[in-house]
Specification:
The chain is of the alpha/beta class. It contains 10 helices and 14 strands. Strand 12 and strand 13 form a beta hairpin. Helix 6 crosses helix 7.
Length: about 300
């Protein structure tokens, strides 16, 4: 079972406007939606659609935290969150001629909440734990290392580049984006070749596998089996929110089935291509994923 930990979850608020933003103007939204968000939560959403067993945990507080619980329950996402004081954050994405994002920092979380999260993880006895997303005020990378070292599960991380660089425990996999890979390795990432070299180098820092999302350039995966590149599929991009989470979910779901890292990368890119074609972090149908994955050309790098 794959358990996800979101230490700074959010309500994702996505609005669409039909005109360019101008100062001192009231703009009307053509549509609006609210989703339970946060990287770990998104990973659990996609894992459910991919038919893998998962539980989402982390910390939630206030009326926005209750909304997250209610929405996940309505979507059939298994969950077991720890209650905290403070208010779960609201993240807003505005889709129009350009895309704008405003993310809140989140509530202050005490280190005692990590003990409660670890107890929750131990209760569910997962084989794999995914710690994903930003750290809220009050926590440091010690919280992530504590989760990794607390049990005999394998741990995956999808966090910022500076956070990745500060981790001390050993991890089964990390999933930086291009900017995070550059920040973590201090290596150039302008080309796919450079990204592949940086991913290979980063494996030596305590990560068995590195999966780097590269936007329109697709993704690279560096593992003990080799380094691979998969270009992005040609789709109409509506919203990039959740794309990296979808890539990670597809890779983890495939590896959980026992397929090779090369095939797992192709399936991850195929899942991401589905997610960027819909607004917000809503869950698209992945019924035709095998066909989509066949169209992803994965090459040895």
């Amino acid at each position: 079972m794959i358990l996800t930990v979101t230490l700074n979850p959010a309500v994702d608020h996505t609005v669409t406007v039909d005109e360019a933003f101008t100062p001192d103007t009231v703009h009307r939204a053509g549509s609006a939606r609210y989703d339970a968000g946060g990287k770990g939560i998104n990973v659990s959403k996609y894992l459910v659609e991919l038919g893998r067993e998962t539980v989402a945990t982390g910390v939630l507080g206030g009326f926005l935290g209750e909304f997250v619980r209610e929405r996940l329950a309505a979507d059939g996402i298994p969950q077991d969150f720890v209650d905290i004081d403070g208010l779960t954050r609201l993240n807003t994405t505005v889709l129009g001629e350009e895309e704008y994002k405003v993310n809140q920092n989140g509530p202050t979380v005490g280190v005692e909440a990590i003990d409660a999260v670890i107890e929750t993880i131990e209760h569910h006895e997962p084989e794999l734990v995914v710690v994903a997303g930003s750290l809220p005020p009050g926590l440091t990378t010690d919280a992530i290392d504590a989760i990794s070292r607390a049990g005999d599960w394998q741990t995956v991380v999808d966090v910022g580049g500076a956070t990745l660089q500060s981790l001390d425990a050993n991890y089964a996999l990390c999933k930086p984006n291009r900017a995070e890979l550059a920040a973590a390795t201090e290596m150039p990432v302008g080309t796919v070749d450079e990204c592949a070299a940086a991913a290979e180098a980063f494996r030596e820092e305590g990560f068995e596998t590195v999966v780097a999302s590269l936007g329109s350039d697709g993704a690279v995966l560096a593992s003990s089996d080799g380094t691979y590149h998969a270009p992005a599929l040609d789709v109409d991009v509506v919203d990039t929110v959740g794309a990296g989470d979808a890539l990670l979910s597809g890779v983890l779901a495939a590896l959980d089935r026992g397929v090779s890292p090369r095939q797992a990368l192709g399936e991850g890119v195929a899942v991401a291509s589905k997610v960027v074609a819909v607004a917000g972090t809503s869950i698209p149908s992945l019924a035709d994923l095998p066909t989509d994955a066949e169209h992803v050309s994965v090459t040895v790098h």
